[in-house]
Amino acid sequence: MFLSICIHLSKRFQSLLPNRETTKQEGFTDTFGRQHTYLRVSVTEKCNFRCLYCMPEEGVQLSPSENILSKNEIIRLLQLFSHYGVDKVRFTGGEPLVRKDFLDIVQSTKQQTNISRLAITTNGMILNKYLESLKESGVSGLNISLDTLIPVKFEFITRRRGHKTVLDSIFKAVELGFPSVKINCVVIRGFNDDEILSFCYLTKDWNITVRFIEYMPFEGNRWNTGKFVSFEEMKQKIALEFGTLKPEQNGIHDTTKHFRIPGFVGRIGFITSMSEHFCAGCNRLRITADGNLRVCLFGDKEVSLRDYMRQGASDDELAEIVAFAVKRKDFALGGYEDMTGIASNPNRPMIHIGG
C-alpha cells in the first residue's frame, strides 16, 4: 500500500519528469541542467578506524545488518543507474574492504553493468592484500585517506595503529600501476596544518595526487570555525615554500582544484567545499549503505530505494523515484547559503552517509 501511494504521488508530478525514452538519452538531470553520471555507493557502515572527523568519539549506532543493501540489490541499482547514463562508480564505506563480498560486488559490477570507471575510497589499512585483485577486477582509481605523516598523530586521529601499513599500501599501488592514486588529507587547524608541506613533498618523486580537503561539519565531529583552514590559506603556505604553483585545467565536474609544483612528478589538489563550493558542475549522487538515495552530501533529503525494491517496485518505478528526487535537488550546499548554515543544522555522521 505504501509503495502504491508513493508511486501515485510521484505520477502527479509527471511534468517534472522526463519520459522513459528521453530519460534513456538524457539520464537523471536536475532543474539546473546537470546530468548525473557519477554515483558513490557506500557498501558498509562498518570501519576498522574511528576517525575523529568522521565518527563521534562515543561511536555511532550502526544500521541492523538486514537493513544493509545486499550484493544483488547493489548490482540491480548499478544496472539501473548505468542504463540512465551513470558511467562512474566509487565504492565507499565505512571501509569498503571490510565487507566480505566486496570483491564479488566489484567483479559483478564490471561484468553485469555498462559502468566504465570503477574506483574506491579506502583507509588503506587492509588494502595491500587486495591490490592485485582490485586491479584485475577493473578498479582504476584509489582514494586513500591519510591525514598525518606522524605515527603518533595517526593513532590519535584514527584511534588505531597502522600508519606504516597505510603508507606501504599507497606506494605499492603506485608501483602496480593504478592509473589514479590519491591521498585524501582533511586539514584541521592545530592538528595537521603544520604537515601540509610534508605532504607536498610526497609528490616530488611519486606519481600520486595529494588532495587537501577543507574540514566539513557533520554530526558529532566537533567541527568549529577555529579548526577550519581555507583553500587560500593552504595555497599561500605552499607557495611560500615552493614558489608559484602551476594550475591545471579542471573539468566542469571536477571537485578538486589541481596544481603542480614545478619539477615534481605528482600533483596536489584542494577540495574547497566550504570556502569555494563547486556545486555548479555537480554530477554526483550517493547511495548509503542502508539503501538511501542522497542527491547532495550536505542536504538532508533522502529516499529509501531499498524499501521500494523490497516492496516490489519495478525498474521503471525506481527510475521515476530517482528522477523525481533529482528534480528536487538544490543548486548548492543542500539549500544552505554558506558553511554557517551547514554547521548549525544536523546531518548524519559521515560513517552513515559514506565517504
TrEMBL record:
SUPFAM superfamilies: Radical SAM enzymes (SSF102114). Pathway: Cofactor biosynthesis; molybdopterin biosynthesis. The keyword Membrane does not apply. Residues 31-257 form the Radical SAM core domain. InterPro entries: Aldolase_TIM (IPR013785), Elp3/MiaA/NifB-like_rSAM (IPR006638), MoaA (IPR013483), MoaA-like (IPR040064), MoaA_NifB_PqqE_Fe-S-bd_CS (IPR000385), MoaA_twitch (IPR010505), MoCo_biosynth_MoaA/MoaC (IPR050105), rSAM (IPR007197). It is an enzyme of class 4 (lyase). NCBIfam families: moaA, PRK00164.2-1. This is GTP 3',8-cyclase.
